[in-house]
Amino acid sequence: MVVKRINLKNFRCHKDITIELNPNVTIITGKNGSGKTSILEAIYIVCRGKSFKGSFKDITNSESSWWSIKANTDGDEISSSFKTLNNIKEKKFVINNNKHTNLPTKNKKPVVLFEPEDMRIINGSPARRRDYIDKLITQFDSGYQTILSKYKKALTQRNFLLKNKNSTNKDLLIWNLSLSEYGSYIVKKRIEILELINQSITDTYNEISESNDWVSIKYSEEPQNNTKQKIFNQLEKDYSKDALIGTTTTGPHRHDILFYLNKKESKTTASRGEIRTIILALKFFEIQRIENETTKRPIILLDDVYSELDETRQNKLNSFTKKNQVIITSAHSIDNNKKNQTIILK
User: Fold this and answer.
1) How confident is the model at residue 339 (pLDDT cuts 50, 70, 90)?
2) Cα three-residue angle 145-146-151, rounded to 5 degrees
3) Which domains does the chain possess?
4) Which of 31, 69, 140, 259 is most exposed, with minimal Cβ within 10 Å?
5) ∠ at Cα 259 (258, 264), nearest 5°?
6) What's this model's pTM, rounded to 2 decimal places?
7) What is the DSSP code string of 289-314?
8) Per-residue burial over 33-60, b = 16 or more CB atoms within 10 Å of its CB, e = otherwise
């Protein structure tokens, strides 16, 4: 699947812009603030049904109460819109004239986004690493997003009761049961995907870096300690502590994903170049796994990441994505060839 054309109206800084996209590589350049990333965001929305930058209400141009996207692909016409009228918010997706409140799972298109913030996956917060792994799983497992949402809702309810000094442990029973059920599923799926990554990441890393290193990723918690029953028991045990501080301290929302290079934790010992290579190897896994699971080649969105990669890594990235539609944003000019297209934003 490729996106052929996209039109944005009142979308962040874009009042009304239409862009024709190359089926191979489109390079979007322009000064900072010209709206390069917004174009990638719009493509992401019509493909995945949500933004990677925030809520829909934040997208609206400051001079309007609505925004819209219209995209033509090689198979569908997809539009998305959002408006606020009298404090009532309306979100809508239209696929081939059929209206939906949310983008249906069957109409979601695989996308791999690579942005500068990804360089902080390894040495950033545990939440950033959890979020990356969770988003990766949802690309080819739609049920996982449902479980994640249910877990977050149950967590919110439990934390609300923990802050109520009149609540007892019995009042939390239903939420303890929900968190243990959904939490054990989340842990299981996270560990499964890490095991798959570990099967190939060392070879991919060494191919990119032309080295002979060893890379591995580990989950911070042992699977045998995160069965449904053990999570439930821990929630019950931690009630007094959790009630004292008003939040839930047990569960996958507190877990971490640990990266190792040559048996040393990467976030404290790896160089910037080594971290970039690990991230690139992760992205290559993501592209390949999505294609294997969905039989579709994902669209590749590269948001100003070329400046983060040296020539060798740029060439590896180009080689690995040559069969995909690639949309690149950059504040600087990028070497182009006759098959590619360059769009300059003013």
Assistant:
1) low
2) 95
3) 1-110+296-346 (3.40.50.300), 117-295 (1.20.1050.90)
4) 31
5) 105
6) 0.88
7) HHHHHHSSPPEEEEES-GGGS-HHHH
8) ebbbbbbbbbbbbbbbbbbbbeebeebb
